[in-house]
């Protein structure tokens, strides 16, 4: 058992607790202190609001995000502690926890900012989608930079039928996914301030989907010729 386990909580545990608590606090603030007028709850394909709700519904939505973030953090932390002697596996679950906290935190920030009308008014829905595009591109960039190093696990990575039955297919498909996600993230981050919306946001999502499909195909292609497949 290493020194981090002997100490109990690790720095990442502390970040996980603080992040989850902050999201839960935002949910409470919106529920109790948010404006009493209608709030946008859903956007259509064109980035326009197609359903409105009140502060109680918005607070509930952010509260659900807090529960998801907390659940991901707990599961990843538990799995990390079960593989104390394998550094690669520890890295895998740490990355899963970071992504599982960063994505909900970004979503909570956007919803809270929308509830309290903190986003720039200039540009309207286009500005909202530009901010969403930039934030998601940054998440994809960060995830892509490390995805090629993850080991087989039930949390993060290209988890296709073939990748889970061939270590070679896992490694190659995740390396490809990491490169493609990094490229999509870089291009999306650069284009976010200038891309016309909602086209820019849709192109970013299409790039992510295409990256996932390409990585899935790669896992099948490598598995098919791997003599050590199961």
Automatic annotation (TrEMBL):
Transmembrane residue ranges: 12-31, 58-78, 98-116, 128-147, 176-195, 201-220
Pfam families the record matches: SdpI (PF13630)
GO terms for biological process, alphabetical: response to toxic substance
Keyword Thylakoid: no
Alphabetical UniProt keywords: Membrane, Transmembrane, Transmembrane helix
N-terminal signal peptide: none
UniProt key word Transmembrane helix: yes
Identification of the protein by name: SdpI family protein
Native source organism of the sequence: Caulobacter sp. 602-2
Lineage of the organism: Bacteria, Pseudomonadati, Pseudomonadota, Alphaproteobacteria, Caulobacterales
């Amino acid at each position: 058992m290493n020194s981090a386990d002997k100490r109990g909580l690790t720095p990442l545990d502390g970040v996980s607790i603080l992040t989850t608590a902050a999201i839960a606090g935002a949910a409470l603030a919106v529920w109790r202190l948010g404006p009493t007028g209608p709030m946008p709850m859903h956007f259509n394909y064109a980035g326009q609001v197609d359903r409105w709700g009140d502060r109680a519904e918005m607070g509930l939505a952010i509260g659900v995000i807090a529960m998801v973030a907390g659940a991901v953090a707990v599961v990843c932390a538990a799995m990390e502690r079960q593989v104390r002697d394998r550094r690669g596996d520890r890295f895998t679950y740490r990355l899963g926890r970071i992504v599982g906290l960063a994505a909900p935190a970004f979503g909570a920030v956007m919803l809270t900012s929308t509830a309290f009308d903190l986003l720039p008014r200039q540009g309207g829905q286009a500005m909202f989608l530009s901010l969403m595009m930039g934030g998601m591109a940054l998440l994809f960039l960060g995830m892509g930079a490390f995805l090629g190093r993850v080991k087989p696990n039930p949390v993060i990575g290209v988890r296709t039928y073939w990748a889970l039955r061939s270590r070679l297919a896992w490694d190659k498909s995740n390396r490809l996914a990491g490169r493609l996600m990094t490229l999509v993230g870089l291009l999306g981050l650069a284009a976010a301030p200038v891309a016309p919306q909602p086209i820019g946001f849709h192109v970013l999502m299409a790039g992510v989907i295409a990256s996932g499909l390409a990585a899935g195909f790669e896992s099948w292609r490598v598995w098919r010729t791997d003599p050590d497949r199961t």
